[in-house]
Amino acid sequence: MARSFAQLALNAEKNKGSIAVAKEPIENPPLEIHTLGNKVLRQPAKRISKVDDSIRELVKNMLRSMYSAKGIGLAAPQVGIDKELLVIDLDLENPTTPPLVLINPKIISTSASLETYEEGCLSIPGVYLDVVRPAAIKISYRDEMGRPRKMNADGLTGRCIQHEMDHLNGVLFVDRVTSDEDLNRELKEHGFNRNHVNKI
Ligand SMILES: [Zn+2]
Fold first, then answer.
1. pTM for the whole thing?
2. Domains held by the chain: number
């Protein structure tokens, strides 16, 4: 289904400052998403000192690549860029919901209660495994206009933020999988090397 650019533009106007990119796969995504085994995924990202047009352009290109891969989250290190930046969109079906853009995110607090949830990653395609994480978090970050913000997140949003923030520290969700048996089976099945996992 083709989506109306007029509607997107209208929405961009309504959510002034937000970044509107069509939630459609494109033929040649601007950024390549690296997969397990590539060293760039293990390099810690650096703080962004100035949120300017070049950062906003990077955000748009990350979104285009994420939508093209039908993902719900993407961190800059996955496209080989060592910046503390991630994008999330849990409402792919709705073109008017703006994506979440987190710049320099920091976890302020985590809930004592834990939750098990099945995760997947655009950098480890096909692999889905249970990971235990705090059920809720509070974070501080800057938005795409550089404004400081705080947010409480639980459920899928909280889960996704924690997964993407791990990427900023060179950590992948497979590092956190507790069941070795499941991990080895899934990796093998999808052609990944167990030696590329750094168990936490
Ligand atoms: Zn990931």
1. 0.91
2. 1
